[in-house]
Design brief:
Structural class: alpha+beta
Organism: Flavobacterium indicum (strain DSM 17447 / CIP 109464 / GPTSA100-9)
Radius of gyration: 31 Å
Keywords: Lipoprotein
Helix content: 25-40%
Strand content: 15-25%
Protein name: Probable lipoprotein
Length: about 180
């Protein structure tokens, strides 16, 4: 009986300590922090130019507007592979005057604008060079870091259309005639 009463007393004291240590104000503080996180997420959804980053938009210094580079740009694949054997992609645009090009590197907030004097030269900016002979390639310090992306042609094994067994209802021949 003594053991049961000691156990009962310990359980009651632990429960009451838990109740006393938790106050309604700490619950309210947690709620305020969650609300402020949600507000920050909404603010962080756009960059300084107003582009919706989570929707894949980046600011183009050539176009002077928000663009989705993976839809509108030309793709280059990185020469180096990650630990899973995948390569990252860079994208580029060429201005209408053909004397400027803009490159969007993976995980970079700002693009790089490269220029050239005439169409026979490569695009250059500091140690970067966008070379076009033999397919576009991006070089850094005379080393190829992005090469032309190759299209993967996947074989279609089956049709997307459901297979029909027998003749369709409207196509059956009338055997009564």
């Amino acid at each position: 009986m003594k053991k049961a009463s000691v156990l009962f007393f310990v359980l009651i004291s632990l429960t009451s300590c838990d109740y006393i240590l938790k106050s309604s104000s700490s619950d309210h503080d947690d709620m305020v922090q969650i609300d402020s996180l949600r507000k920050n997420q909404i603010i962080d959804d756009k960059n300084e130019h107003g582009c919706e980053v989570k929707s894949g938009y980046k600011w183009s210094n050539l176009e002077k507007k928000c663009v989705r580079v993976f839809e509108e740009g030309y793709r280059l694949s990185s020469v180096a592979k990650d630990s899973l054997g995948n390569s990252n992609n860079a994208y580029f645009f060429i201005a209408e005057d053909s004397l400027r090009a803009e490159v969007f590197l993976p995980d970079s907030k700002e693009s790089i604008v490269l220029t050239r004097e005439d169409e026979s030269e490569n695009f250059k900016f500091k140690d970067f060079e966008l070379k076009q002979k033999g397919g576009f390639a991006l070089l850094y310090d005379d080393t190829v870091i992005f090469k032309p992306a190759l299209a993967r042609d996947l074989k279609v094994i089956e049709s997307d259309e459901p297979e029909m067994k027998g003749e369709p209802e409207g196509m059956k021949k009338d055997s009564t005639k």
